[in-house]
Amino acid sequence: MATPLAAERFDEISEALKDVVDPELGVNVVDLGLIYDLGWDDENDALVINMTLTSAGCPLTDVIEDETAQALDGHVERFRINWVWMPPWGPERMTDDGKDMMRAIGFQI
């Protein structure tokens, strides 16, 4: 069971995760709204990332996991991604910046 991160730590990790880019869309996972929650697993001393994908059949989870490891280097020693599918992702989860990025590449958001 993960406990919530302090607001300052949450902001630091969220900012670092903006370096993780969805390989199909070219927009970071934070602004896409793919990060559902961040917590800390005290028992395993690890960051827990509850994350989804734009589609459950995405074959690029390995790429996202590798980019996450690179983005979090220097911020946490250990992390784990919980891939979650409920609630399903939708464009309403995107930040305003994410919507702007999607419009810039031709999506009607």
Protein model, in words:
The protein has 3 helices and 4 strands, in the order βαββαβα. By secondary structure, the protein is of the alpha+beta class. β3, α2 and β4 form a beta-alpha-beta unit. The N and C termini lie far apart (35 Å). The model has no long low-confidence stretch (mean pLDDT 94). InterPro entries: Fe-S_Maturation_MIP18, FSCA_dom_sf, MIP18-like. This is Metal-sulfur cluster assembly factor.
Report the CATH architecture: 2-Layer Sandwich
Global mean pLDDT? 94
Order of strands across the biggest sheet?
Answer: 1-2-3-4
Highest CATH level, the class: Alpha Beta
CATH superfamily: Fe-S cluster assembly (FSCA)
Largest sheet: 4 strands, mixed
Q: Which residue ranges are poorly predicted, with pLDDT under 50 across at least 5 consecutive positions? A: none
The number of strands is 4
Number of helices: 3
Number of domains: 1
* Radius of gyration, in angstroms, nearest whole number: 14 Å
SSE layout and pairings?
Blueprint: E1 3-4, H1 7-17, E2 35-41, E3 46-51, H2 61-72, E4 79-83, H3 96-104
Parallel strand pairs: 3-4
Antiparallel strand pairs: 1-2, 2-3
Domain MIP18 family-like: 11-73
Organism: Amnibacterium setariae
Protein name: Metal-sulfur cluster assembly factor
